[in-house]
Design goal:
mainly beta; two-stranded antiparallel ribbon
Length: 68
Amino acid sequence: MAKTNLLLQSPPPYNLGWSITGIDADWDDESGQVELRVDVSVFASGLNNRTGIGGLAFQVTILAAVAA
């Protein structure tokens, strides 16, 4: 589930937003699984304003290499 929320309690000007600042996926030799790392940034400015990320959703496609 991907979900964001926002609570505005002050009149403009205010600033808010969120972004994905980095994504990386690598094969983990120890676990035998793909490890996905995501960096997320969220911000809100203004008197008593709040914002948050309640969940992230991803679609991942893994292409396998076949040894000859």
